[in-house]
Amino acid sequence: MGTTNHSEVTDFILVGFRVLPELHILLFLIFLLVYAMILLGNIGMMVIIMTDPRLNTPMYFFLGNLSFVDLFYSSVIAPKAMINFWSESKSISFAGCVAQLFLFALFIVAEGFLLAVMAYDRFIAICNPLLYTVQMSTRLCVQLVAGSYFCGCISSVIETSMTFTLSFCASRAIDHFYCDDRPLQRLSCSDIFIHKLVSFCLSGIIIFPTIIVIIVSYLYIVSTVLKIPSSEGRQKAFSTCSSHLGVVSVLYGAGSFMYLTPDRFPELSKVASLCYTLLTPMLNPLIYCLRNKDVKDALRRILRENIFLFISV
Length: 313
Prior knowledge:
Elements: E1 3-4, E2 11-14, H1 24-51, H2 58-86, E3 91-93, H3 94-127, H4 132-135, H5 138-163, E4 168-169, E5 173-174, H6 181-186, H7 193-225, H8 231-260, H9 266-290, H10 293-312
Parallel strand pairs: 2-5
Antiparallel strand pairs: 1-4, 2-3
Helix pairs in contact: 1-2, 1-9, 2-3, 2-9, 3-5, 3-7, 3-8, 7-8, 8-9
């Protein structure tokens, strides 16, 4: 079989979902609706957090960054996927593919670390409430968020550079709806054993420490909450944490399936990818807004003020 080096590849073809052409319009409308909800929910969440001084706390600082990450990495994926539902060629340039993989890997890893940081924040708030403002200082919060982005950047540089130093075969068709590491591996003519090993180890290094932080934090939280005498206090504490646990379950469940299991079912991998590329960014603002009294109160205040200004004009 003839091979071409990666430097000779100028573009790729994103195969997307293997469905009847008649369903492309339906899929486009679903993607459009979901992406509109992502934009509205995450931008709205950031605006609420930035404009309401009552939400000037570490918890909402982290939540604002989570919304930013969700907004950014979904925007790396969704617009191109929607364009391809109408496109005949479904092509993406080599540089565009590199950029898509790099940015997506950066922000999805940063989200994993942010969720671990948020679990640690809840642990301090519930288990050591008197020391919360001292321990979760502004400086530490900024360092934790910057560290999350830094870890995402380092892992993304490693993953992207390894992927695009492979040699690719004659086929340019990526069996996915965005440029991802595993579908690109299938196009390679190189020996990818080392690449797969490093990718697996990198995924493990990212997933397991963050999961351990989350599990240990919540073990301490549950132990502390069960000691609260009033049922109202226990319910409030569990309500605060249940939103975070729901987000963690979706992201880590789909991510673990995608990157820590054998690559034998491409179509199933696409469905799993949808969970953390579009479903999680859409659900995060809804979960945190609908289950969070402070955010709901802030939203009501903003709506009242805007309605009052509109009526007075």
